[in-house]
């Protein structure tokens, strides 16, 4: 394997938000309806749009006021270059994004319907090369950060290492368990200050049927009882089901006309991370994340849809 590994002692300024995770190029097609199994549908065009849950969250945190660094892997190819250049233009420190010749940059095939709903299939590619050793090598960046954010598009041993290192260092640790395939190991939940699944993921993590705000609160309470200190089940237009040690709340979402929900959850997570890094209380950080996500669904694509802080106006001021 030929890899250009970043230096552990890079001279970049300290980041408050460290995102550990995936970078993908999204291959996006828009169709009136999502195809059923066995059905062929026509689309007018194929677009390539920067994405990946980790990179989307990094862009969101940066546009919404955070000083952000990204730790992840891309291939030594045009998509990898485009993704790193794009993050740099957002002010994200990419010195911990390593470039590998042995795998292509991660890809996501995204189909978006006129309703705004999507389906996504990912090919992990270089994202699967992230290792615990790469995480440990960046201990100094973990020490400097206030908030650590992980998702599940990276290998489980690397995610576990990042969660535990963040927790050991007393950082605010956020896990967006996406995509989820089943329950999480208990030590992972114990490392999480914030656990943020959507309703599908909450069902997979708990074996609860999550089909209403009340059932989302039940799933959140279950995950809280397993060790995660703040659990937020994102419910799209129905808001956020939030459970902590003393409260069980449904926080309604701002009204938005959705054209594409891709990266809405990532926008929520990145905004929340930026707000927490600034010292916002959980409720204010949730409101900030909801305001940002509500804007993102009104626009097409993953990273292009993410708003800047100046666009959130009075809502942003209230959230802080
Ligand atoms: O959450 C949306 C993202 O999921 C897309 O950008 C795609 O790359 C997949 O990772």
User: What kind of sheet is the major sheet?
Assistant: 10 strands, mixed
CATH architecture: 3-Layer(aba) Sandwich
| CATH fourth-tier homologous superfamily | Ribokinase
The kinds of small molecule bound in this structure are: alpha-D-ribofuranose
Domain count: the total is 1
Query: Spatial order of the strands in the main sheet?
Result: 1-6-5-2-9-10-11-12-13-14
What is the alpha-carbon Rg in Å? Answer: 18 Å
Tally of DSSP helical segments: 11
CATH topology: UDP-N-acetylmuramoyl-L-alanine:D-glutamate ligase
Write the layout of secondary structure elements.
Layout: E1 3-4, E2 17-20, E3 24-31, E4 46-51, H1 53-63, E5 68-75, H2 78-89, E6 93-100, E7 106-113, E8 118-123, H3 132-137, H4 139-144, E9 147-150, H5 156-168, E10 172-175, H6 186-191, E11 194-195, H7 199-206, H8 213-225, E12 230-234, E13 240-243, E14 248-251, H9 264-277, H10 282-296, H11 313-319
Parallel strand pairs: 2-5, 2-9, 3-7, 5-6, 9-10, 10-11, 11-12
Antiparallel strand pairs: 1-6, 3-4, 7-8, 12-13, 13-14
Bound molecules: alpha-D-ribofuranose.
Task: Give an account of the 3D structure.
There is one protein chain. The chain has helices at 53-63, 78-89, 132-137, 139-144, 156-168, 186-191, 199-206, 213-225, 264-277, 282-296, 313-319; strands spanning 3-4, 17-20, 24-31, 46-51, 68-75, 93-100, 106-113, 118-123, 147-150, 172-175, 194-195, 230-234, 240-243, 248-251. With 320 residues, it is an alpha/beta fold. The chain has a single domain, classed as UDP-N-acetylmuramoyl-L-alanine:D-glutamate ligase. Strands 1-6-5-2-9-10-11-12-13-14 form a ten-stranded mixed beta sheet, sandwiched between helices. The longest helix has 15 residues, at 282-296. 52% of the residues are buried. The structure holds alpha-D-ribofuranose (RIB). The site of alpha-D-ribofuranose (RIB) has 16 residues, from strand 3, helix 1, strand 8 and helix 9.
């Amino acid at each position: 394997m030929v890899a250009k590994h970043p230096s552990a002692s890079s001279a970049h300024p300290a980041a408050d938000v460290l995102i550990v995770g995936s970078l993908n190029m999204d291959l996006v097609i828009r169709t009136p309806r999502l195809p059923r199994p066995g059905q062929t549908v026509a689309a007018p065009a194929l677009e390539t749009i920067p994405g990946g849950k980790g990179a989307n969250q990094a862009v969101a945190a940066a546009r919404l006021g955070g000083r952000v660094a990204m730790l992840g892997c891309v291939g030594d190819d045009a998509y990898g270059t485009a993704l790193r250049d794009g993050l740099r233009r957002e002010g994200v420190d990419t010195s911990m994004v390593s470039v590998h010749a042995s795998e292509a940059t991660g890809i996501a095939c995204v189909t978006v319907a006129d309703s705004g709903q999507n389906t996504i299939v990912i090919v992990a590619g270089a994202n699967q090369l992230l290792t615990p050793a790469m995480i440990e090598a960046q201990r100094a960046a973990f020490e400097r950060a206030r908030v650590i954010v992980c998702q599940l598009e990276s290998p489980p041993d690397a995610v576990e290492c990042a969660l535990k290192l963040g927790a050991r260092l007393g950082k605010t640790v956020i896990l967006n368990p996406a995509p989820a395939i089943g329950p999480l190991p208990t030590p992972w939940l114990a490392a999480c200050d914030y656990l943020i699944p959507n309703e599908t993921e909450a069902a997979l993590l708990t074996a609860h049927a999550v089909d209403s705000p009340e059932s989302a609160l039940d799933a959140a309470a279950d995950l809280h009882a397993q060790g995660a200190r703040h659990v937020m089940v994102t419910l799209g237009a129905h808001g956020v089901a939030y459970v902590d040690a003393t409260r069980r709340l449904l926080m309604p979402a701002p009204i938005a006309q959705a054209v594409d929900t891709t990266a809405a959850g990532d926008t929520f997570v990145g905004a929340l991370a930026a707000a927490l890094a600034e010292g916002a209380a959980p409720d204010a950080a949730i409101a900030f994340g909801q305001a940002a996500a509500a804007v993102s669904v009104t626009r097409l694509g993953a990273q292009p849809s993410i708003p800047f802080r100046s666009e959130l106006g009075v809502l942003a001021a209230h959230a802080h």
